[in-house]
Sequence to fold (114 residues):
Amino acid sequence: MMLGLEVDIKTDKIQDDLTCRKAGWSFIQDPKNKLADTWEQLADTLRSSSFRGKPFIKGTDWQVDTCIAYLNAGIDLSKLTFAASHLSGGLPGRGTEIPYATTLSAYPLFRQAK
Fold:
C-alpha cells in the first residue's frame, strides 16, 4: 500500500508542542519533527508509481479508475486485517456465559449475608 516508499520516520522522536495555541497548528509542521516534507515525498512517489500496471497520473490528469481500484484494495486490506486481529484475539470459550456464571456464583453469598 506504500507503493514501495520507504520513509525513515523515527516515531519515538516525534513530539507535539501542547503549549502552542495557534489555530491550525500541527506537530507535522514543527521543524524539529522533520515531517513537513513527507507528504511531498509521498506525492512524488505517487506521480511515478502505478497500481496493477496502470499509472495513477497520465500527464497532468488523475486516472480515476486506478485511484478507485487502489482505494478499494486498501478497504479490502483493512477488512482482512480486522478479521485477522479479531480471530487471533478472540474470547475465552463460552465467553458470553461468564457474566451469567459469575452472577449465579455470587447469588448464594448475597443470600447468606441477609
